[in-house]
Every structure is written in structure tokens, then in C-alpha cells.
Amino acid sequence: MIVGHVGIAFGARALDRRETDARAPLLWLLAASVAPDMLDGAYALGQYCNPEGVFSHSLPAAAILAAMFGLAAFFHTRSAATALLVAGLVMLHLPPDYVTGRKSLWPGGPVVGLYIYRWGWLDFIVEAPLIVAGWWMLRRARFTPSWAVSGLSLAALIAVQLSFYVAALANGLRALLVCTR
User: Fold this and answer.
1) Residue 55 and residue 39: Cα distance in Å, rounded?
2) What is the distance between the alpha carbons of residues 21 and 23, in angstroms, rounded to a whole number?
């Protein structure tokens, strides 16, 4: 799951019913919702092996990321509610990834997941409704950033998700990472 996490962040922001100035900033929620993927990307850029996401998507790794993001959000916003929402979104990253991929629960632990990436069309069918639902919820909420609820925003998110599907068709199934060192 990649773009579906954005839909989840949009939905979380829409459900934040606090006073306007106390609501969690959308950028914090977006960053939190993709934090394990950002860490995974950093490992890839540094050519550090992260088999089955053990250092980015396992329960201990996500808990550490959740604490870091939650603390950073607290220091930035001075809101414990925002910090908890941000930390919660980091942890909520994992369940959808267990549907679309295969991830290690903890170092040396079992690898779980339905791995629907095998069927790009099914991944698209799972992620596209999450994107649309989150966008729709945010669009119906009050005091939301206009850039996030524009039709162009939704079209761009769907286009990115569609590009993952097309890339999977063109390149075939991405093999699970096995470290050679």
C-alpha cells in the first residue's frame, strides 16, 4: 500500500472534530501515514538491506517511529491530542501493508501478509476506494486545505496509484527482497 495511506490520513483529518485551530495539521498526518515507507526509502537510498521491512514496518520499528513522530508533533503543535493522532497514524500504517504486501512482525519473527501486489488490479481495487473515501471525507469536513480537496488532487492521487499498477504490468511482479551480504 502506497497511495492508500494518503486516503487514510485524509480520513483521519476529517474525523478530527476539535476546534479549527486545535486540529492536527494535515501535513503532520500525511507524513505520519507514510513514515515507514519514508524510512524504507531512506534504507534503499543508502543501499541498506531491509528484508520484508523488518527495520521499517515491523511492530518494534513502527512503535519507535510512532514515538518519534508523536514527540516531534507534540513539540511542534504543543498538542497531546495531535501527538497521539500522529503516533496512531504511524501504527495504522501497518494493517493495510499486511493486506497488500508481506512484512516481518518483528526481527526474527514471522512474515505475514496477503501480498496482493501479486495482482496489480486487485491492489488498485483495494487502494483506490481508500483514496477516494479519504478525499471525500476530507472534502466534506470544515476548514480543510483547498489544495487537498480539489478535484486535481484526487486525480493526481488516482493517477499515481494507476502508475504503480501500470509499472507492475510492465515490469512484472517485484520479488521480495533477500539480502545477499
Assistant:
1) 8
2) 6
Q: Give, for all 181 residues of the chain, the pLDDT tens digit.
A: 889 999 999 999 999 888 877 789 999 999 999 999 999 999 989 989 888 899 999 999 999 999 999 999 999 999 999 999 999 999 999 999 999 999 999 999 999 999 888 887 888 899 999 999 999 999 999 888 889 999 999 999 999 999 888 887 777 665 555 566 5
pTM given for the model: 0.89
Q: Hey, what's the cell of 155?
A: 486525480
Helix (H) or strand (E) holding 103, with range, is strand 103-104
SS3 2: coil
